[in-house]
């Protein structure tokens, strides 16, 4: 596989609006290059722009295509800040693992240990929700709090992002904690998978309790600052907001940005391709005890997302590729942005791919780009 990935990096030299790695790569022509694969996606009339970041050992490469806003000729770049949505959850996984290593919490802790009120409802037949259940979406908490957001999905149309945004803009942390008292747990926590943003927001609340700091500050101190991710934030500065890419819905209408008055841990993160490359570098170092921990299986008792090989780590989806070995991935979908971050630790290889288009089918289209790239790697062996 080392030959495959090295060959692939040579292929990457050919293309448009690229930033090369720190090492000089010898370029050569190929019938299919990453540019051809990416530009095929841009033939899709719904896709405005596409950004790709690659990390392999000490080599990095970024690629940007299209325009962020049609007819504006504003090509994305390394300075472009994108909403990364649920990829934000993986930051929470790292922070929980670090807190665990520091002896500040245990995955077996009853979450009510960190809540002020009694919350007698957060158990089923004496079985409490534990921190590990938050990490694996097996807590039995609803997908969203408030519950009214879940009800909005009964009518999926072009207005859905705007209706969700309106509810979220009028919600708060105190209301979240009050609504948590109304949740009904009807099954033993830890026995079935049910994706939940409420899980992650509650995990961020617990982190604030154990560190006695705002979640933003914990993220900055333990991930963004030490791993050179200056443009990775929940809440952007005014100067950073100028660089935040607009997102677009299926109908081409500009989507609302993901905003929240909660902790933002479930999907309010923003980042750039260079920052995400540094994050991949951090994640690919499995000699790091915290990273090694987050890549371990916490739950594999059922078929996840239709794939019997999927397992759950600290918010990560774990799988295995025949050629590349263990894969570690997460998808993020905002109102107007879709992205994937995928890692292959055996080959010290990671890829992040983002488009500022939020159609329901965009995630699959981006994954096809990644899969086509992997096919080309195998062909070049």
What is the string of helix and strand elements? HEHEEEHEEHHHHHHHEHHEEEEEH
The counted number of beta strands is 12
Number of discrete helical segments: 13
- The overall pLDDT average reads 90
Tell me the strand order in the biggest sheet. Answer: 1-3-2-12-11-10-9-8
Q: Spell out the CATH superfamily.
A: DD-peptidase/beta-lactamase superfamily
Taken from the alpha-carbon principal axes, the silhouette is globular
CATH class: Alpha Beta
| Percent range of helical residues | 25-40%
Reported for the largest beta sheet, the result is: 8 strands, antiparallel
Low-pLDDT residue spans:
1-16, 21-32
Taking all Cα atoms into account, the compactness measure Rg is: 20 Å
- The class by helix and strand makeup works out as alpha+beta
Euclidean distance between termini CA atoms:
8 Å
CATH architecture: 3-Layer(aba) Sandwich
How many domains in all? 1
Strand share of the residues?
Answer: 15-25%
**Per CATH, what is the topology?**
Beta-lactamase
């Amino acid at each position: 596989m080392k030959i495959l990935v090295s060959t692939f990096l040579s292929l990457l030299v050919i293309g448009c609006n690229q930033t090369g790695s720190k090492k000089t790569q010898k370029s050569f022509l190929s019938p299919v290059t990453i540019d051809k694969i990416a530009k095929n996606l841009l033939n899709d009339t719904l896709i405005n722009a596409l950004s790709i970041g690659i990390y392999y050992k000490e080599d990095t490469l970024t690629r940007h295509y299209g325009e962020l806003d049609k007819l504006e000729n504003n090509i994305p770049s390394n300075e472009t800040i994108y909403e990364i949505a649920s990829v934000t959850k993986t930051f929470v996984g790292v922070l929980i693992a670090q807190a665990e290593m520091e002896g500040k919490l245990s995955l077996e802790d009853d979450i009510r240990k960190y809540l002020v009120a009694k919350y007698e409802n957060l158990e089923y037949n004496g079985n409490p929700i534990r921190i590990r259940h938050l990490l694996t979406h097996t807590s039995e908490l609803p997908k969203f709090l408030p519950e009214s957001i879940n009800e909005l999905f009964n009518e999926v149309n072009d207005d859905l992002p705007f209706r969700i945004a309106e509810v979220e803009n009028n919600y708060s942390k105190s209301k979240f904690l009050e609504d948590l008292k109304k949740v009904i747990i009807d099954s033993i926590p830890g026995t079935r998978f049910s994706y939940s943003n409420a899980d992650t927001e509650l995990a961020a609340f617990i982190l604030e309790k154990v560190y006695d700091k705002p979640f933003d500050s914990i993220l900055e101190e333990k991930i963004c600052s030490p791993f050179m991710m200056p443009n990775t934030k929940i809440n952007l500065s005014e100067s950073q907001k100028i660089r935040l890419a607009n997102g677009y819905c299926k109908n081409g209408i500009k989507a609302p940005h993901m905003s929240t008055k909660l902790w933002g841990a479930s999907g309010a993160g923003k980042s750039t391709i260079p920052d995400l490359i540094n994050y991949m570098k951090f994640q690919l170092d499995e000699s790091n005890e915290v990273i090694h921990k987050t890549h371990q299986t916490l739950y594999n008792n059922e078929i996840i997302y239709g794939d019997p090989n999927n397992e759950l780590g600290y918010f990560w989806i774990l799988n295995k590729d025949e050629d590349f070995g263990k894969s570690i991935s997460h998808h993020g979908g905002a109102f107007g942005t879709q992205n994937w971050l995928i890692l292959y630790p055996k080959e010290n290889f990671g890829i992040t791919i983002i488009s500022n288009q939020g159609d329901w089918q965009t995630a699959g289209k981006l994954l096809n780009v990644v899969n086509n790239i992997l096919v080309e790697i195998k062909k070049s062996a």
